[in-house]
Design goal:
The structure is a single chain. This protein is an alpha+beta fold and 127 residues long. It has five helices and two strands; from the N terminus they run βαβαααα. Strands 1-2 form a two-stranded parallel ribbon. The model is unreliable at 1-10 (pLDDT under 50).
Length: 127
């Protein structure tokens, strides 16, 4: 059973594909003792670009709608103007300026990243 859903903005097709995969993954696990936590971070998704927000636009996002209705949708949260600061803050719970990610995108070949001493959500949840 999904206990947590976090949406931040991406094209509806990508969000639909990600949601489909996450639903299949969640259904494949037999009743876990702890709740599943699913974060969906989608860059550049407008507020009304999913069906459960505004069905009058004709956007059909059935899997995201099911996730939203069976979980918790966090609203009125702010993100950073680019992806790396948003993701680093989400995954650590710290402001990007404290992580050094406030102004740059961390690409696959970037020779720096978040300090290895930082704790991420999976580590915190495991504790």
């Amino acid at each position: 059973k999904l206990q947590f859903l976090y949406l931040i903005g991406a094209p509806a097709e990508m969000a639909h594909a990600v949601a489909t995969g996450l639903v299949a993954l969640a259904l494949a696990h037999a009743a876990p003792s702890k709740p599943d936590i699913v974060f969906i971070v989608a860059d550049d998704l407008g507020f009304n670009e999913v069906g459960y927000r505004n069905s009058s636009r004709g956007l059909m996002t059935p899997f995201l709608d099911d996730l939203a209705f069976s979980g918790v949708v966090l609203e009125n949260y702010y993100v950073q103007p680019i992806c790396s600061p948003t993701r680093s803050a989400l995954m650590t719970g710290r402001y990007p300026v404290h992580l050094g990610t406030q102004a740059n995108v961390i690409y696959w070949d970037t020779p720096w990243g978040i300090d290895l001493k930082e704790k991420f959500i999976p580590q915190i949840a495991k504790e």
